[in-house]
Structure formats: C-alpha cells, structure tokens
Amino acid sequence: MKRFRTHLSVTALALALGLAGCSVGGTTPTGVSAVSSSASTTSAGTAASTASTGTAEAVSLDALAEDTHYDADDLTWEAAAEVAVTLADGTSTAAGGTSSSAVKIDGGTVTITAAGTYRLSGSLSDGQVVVAAGEEDVVRIILDGADITNSTGSPFVVESANEAIVYLADGTTNFLSDASTYADQGTDAPNAAVYSMADLTIAGPGSLTVDGNFNDGISSKDGLVLAAGNVTVDAADDGIVGKDYAVLLDGAYQVTAGDDGFKSDNEEDEGRGWVLVNGGTLNVNAGDDGIKAFNTLTIAAGTTTVEESEEGLEAQHIIMTGGTATVTANDDGVNASGGSTSSSTTAAGGMGSGMGGGMGGGEMAVGDYTVNISGGLLTINAEGDGLDSNGNASISGGTVVVNGPTNNGNGALDVNGELAVTGGTVAAAGSAGMAVTPGASSTQSGVQVTLESSVPAGTVVQIADSSGNVVAAFVTTKAAASLVFSSAAISDGQEYTIYTGGTATVSAGIGEGSLDGATELGTVTAGEYTAAQGPGGGGGGPRW
C-alpha cells in the first residue's frame, strides 16, 4: 500500500494519456469478488485495471498512482480480520477481528480509532460514524446495508487517517443523510454528508445514496478517487468535491447539486486542484458549473453527461483524449478560464483568425488557458459560447459537435488566441455574429457557412464536393445561422456546394446525407474563412 505521493505536475499526468496499452475504466465493474466468510482474501480492484471503454486510451493505473493516493492493493484485505459493526439506535455492537477494540460506541456515535477493515450493517436513525485514526492508518469501511441519518450534522466523518476507503458491498444498498442545519458550523467543522479530512476512496459494486441537505454531498479535504460503485448524490451546494484532485475511475455516479456538480478546488498548492474522468459513467445536474477544476480538467475515457448547468466544463486547462462527453449549459459549454494565471499576449481582434480570414474589432488578452481535444466525442449544447478558451485551443482528433447560441453576442466557437485544427471532425453551429474559425496554424481545412437568416431546429445542412458527393451532413439542434465544419474529407482550396434539406442519417448531429429534395444555397471554398466583426457585426463568408 502506497503512503506517499511524488506530486507530479498535472502536465506530467496529462502526458501519460498517450501511453500505449492503457485500459483503465469505462464500464461498470465486472468480476468483482464479494467478501465472504469462507474467503481468505478479497480482491475488488481488478476491474479498475482491466475494463476498457473500447474507444481511446485512458490513463494507466501506474501513471495515476504516481500522483494520487490510489492503490488497487488497498482494495484487497483479509476477510478474517474484518470487524463486524452492527448499527442500531442505542445498541450498536462490534465483534470479531483484531481491531474490534478500536471501535468505541457512545450512544448513537460509533468511533473507529485504528487501522483495519470494518463492516457496517444496520441503521442509525440519528447517529454518526467517525474515523479518528492515526496519521499513518488506512481505514477501510465496508458498507453492507448501512443506513445512517444525522439530525444535527454529518452522518459520516473522517477526522484523521492516512487514507479512508468506503467499500460498497456487492448487492447492498446504503444510505447516508445529514441534517439541513448543522449544530457546529465552525471553520474546520464538517459540512458534507460524507466528509473526510484524509484521502478518500469510494469503491465496490454496491449502491450508495447520499443526501447532502446542508451543504455538500461528498467532500474530501485531501484527494478523492471514485474507483467503482453505483452512487447517487443530491446536495444543497456542491455534489462531489476533492480538494487536491477528484478522479473517477469507474462506476456510475449520478449527481444533482445546487452549485457545482463534480469539482476540485485547491487554489493554494502548485499542481493541485485537478479533475480526471478516466472511466465509468458520470451524470451531473448542477445549479452552477457541471464539472470544474481550478487547474486542469481531463476527460480520458468513460461517459460524461452534464445534463444541466450554467457552465458545463470549466478549468484553466481542459483536455479531452477519449470517452464521450455531452454537455448542456445555460452559459458556456466548455470554458477555459479562471485559475491562477495572468494574460500572456494580446490578439488583435481576438475573434477568429482563420486562414484567409480577418480579425474582429478591438483587442483581447490571451492568457494561459487552453482547450486541447485529441480524441473522443464531445457534444455541446450551449446558450452562451459553445467552446470557449480565454487563451488558445487545439483540436487534433476526435469529434467535436457544438450547438451554440442563437444570439449574436456569443459564438459556437470563441477563442481569444488561435484555434488550431490539425485533425478530427469539427461541426460548430450557432449565431453568425461571433463566428470564430480555424487559425493560420491549422493543417486541416474546413468550410464556413453563413446564412442570411437562421434556419430552425431540425434543419439538414449538407456539404457536397464538386462531383455532387455529400462529404458531410449536419442536423441543427436549435436555430442556427452559421456553421463551421472541418474534417479530413475537406480538401483545402476546393469548392463545396451547400444545401439545406434532403435527408440525413446522423449520430450526435453529423453523418451521411442524401441530396434528394435538398435546396442548393451556393458554394464556398475550403480554407477561405472570413471571421466575425464582433457582437452584432455579422459573420463572414458568402451569405444565402
């Protein structure tokens, strides 16, 4: 069991995304062995190192272990050493195992004071489980049909330990619910239904429902790794928070939050405050940001859905190398901003510097903010800017589909620096007033389509080459007056004819089309972009 971290930079971890042979996460755990009284050992970590999304390479466990507390060995233990803790109002008991003397029971409070494995079952209608172990202790809590409610504070608190592991026993459902008002609201007091001052891991094939009625649902003041589990969190404020980092390896997590959904918020320590989705399924409904990192947010594998948010994905640096992400936002869908950075350069015009295109009016600071997409499928539906970077952005692989704003004060693509497209497929539709196009460093060509008036949702827009072959079909999700499309099927300098109507077979809005019944609008030349002139200035290129 690893107890020390080397504190690699987030950049170093991001570089590990390209390692060959990585296959972490992506599906609900299979082959996880449940603990039984006849078993001598129990291994629950194998799924995390063998399951695969079948799409892109995820971060290897070896690379991940270098910069987190997580070690799959922590999910292996001697069944005979378990301490069985039976929860009951006023009559909780602990028996078996060499660590049974480390369980202190005082009314409705069960306190664990030493390293070991503790299996909790039963219920407390108004109680609390507290871990108050030594700073080098690893405490493993197996929830085996546990139901704990607290009327004055948090039902589950890790006050001290080296690491706490919450393991959800196979075939069980577990519930943790806190008070709507806490008796102790001091600076260092718990403020979440699951609250940990130590590194926290959640694993196991069972189910857990967390009701954070006061503030947060699950909160670690150190690192947080979600290795497995079927977990539902409903929180008044933030849903799931890891201070140093928040990592999803596997499992299914459904988060409903009054503020941010899934986040890491360490603003003080160099290289901390990062989020990694490396597999599993994450669904978020958030009152503010869906998934947020102070530093870097990486999606490497798995299925991520932000069903509702103000801003969907937000961090100083946003990286996507694989998996599937679907984002719905009332404001920006993907937003590279915040962090502890200052502006580095100034881009004249700042809005759209496409090959052959012009710049928008005014100047815009270009800071140390980035969006980097090299794989996976990213689909955005945003009322504000669709994909927004206060610095630069690059797309070198994968598929990016943006259903952007209908108002001219925002754009489907909004990049203060340069948007470099060197691979993948990009389809960005929205209003025409702030249309940003690929920049001069792009090596993959594309086309820009600007309409005289918006077409309604459900309109088929098709791009055909000089031989009449449809190279791309796009179906609008909402009213749109502009489309920027880039893929390997577009040849720089060649003319393409734009149509509306006809039929199309699409996935995530793009696919194959037929021109039967379509209306020809006109032609565009690949690589010739004319950028927008700022809010209300109208998009460039031919208008039909």
What's the layout of helices and strands?
Elements: H1 10-15, E1 41-43, H2 46-50, H3 61-65, E2 76-78, E3 83-87, E4 93-95, E5 103-106, E6 109-112, E7 116-124, E8 128-132, E9 138-149, E10 156-160, E11 163-168, E12 173-177, E13 192-196, E14 199-203, E15 207-212, E16 216-220, E17 223-226, E18 230-235, E19 240-242, E20 245-248, E21 252-257, E22 262-264, E23 274-286, E24 289-293, E25 296-308, E26 311-315, E27 317-320, E28 324-329, E29 334-336, E30 343-348, E31 363-367, E32 370-373, E33 377-382, E34 387-389, E35 392-395, E36 399-403, E37 413-415, E38 419-421, E39 425-430, E40 446-455, E41 460-464, E42 470-475, E43 480-486, E44 495-500, E45 503-507, E46 510-514, E47 519-525
Question: What would you note in describing this structure?
Answer:
- The chain is mainly beta.
- A 13-stranded mixed beta sheet has the order 5-6-8-10-13-16-19-22-24-26-29-34-37, with no helix packed on it. Strands 9-11-14-17-20-23-21-18-15-12 form a 10-stranded parallel β-barrel. A 6-stranded antiparallel beta sheet has the order 45-46-42-41-44-47, with no helix packed on it.
- Strand 3 and strand 4 (93-95) form a beta hairpin.
- The radius of gyration is 25 Å and the shape is elongated.
- Mean pLDDT is 85; it is low at 1-12, 14-56, 341-363 and 532-540.
